[in-house]
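Slide 14.
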Amino acid sequence: MKITVYQKPTCSTCRQVYQALKDSGVEMEAVNYYIESLSEAKLKELVKKMGIKASELFRKKEEIYKELKLAEKEVSDDEAVKLMVKHPDLMQRPIVEKGSRAILARPAERLKEIL
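Slide 15: predicted structure.
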């Protein structure tokens, strides 16, 4: 079954995950979501596959997270998804999808859970 990695190529964890998949000979597709934006529907699907709340994907150290004062308010899943689609820096990475499952491969060792 094909694996899709949603990543930012300059991210060190994304590079580790990509290299580990490449080294294991797994068929995969890498999606740079800064170039190929994720749709709201796709991000909602990934969140559902991960079994988490969308706001759990927020990168809390990012400047945009602080600017939007997201720590100070409750954010619905729909609102969180819209914010991450609009501001890709808000989203944790890499997300690895395989069939009906998806994980946040952070740290990179979590990749074992989906292989």
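Speaker note: The chain has one domain: 3-113.
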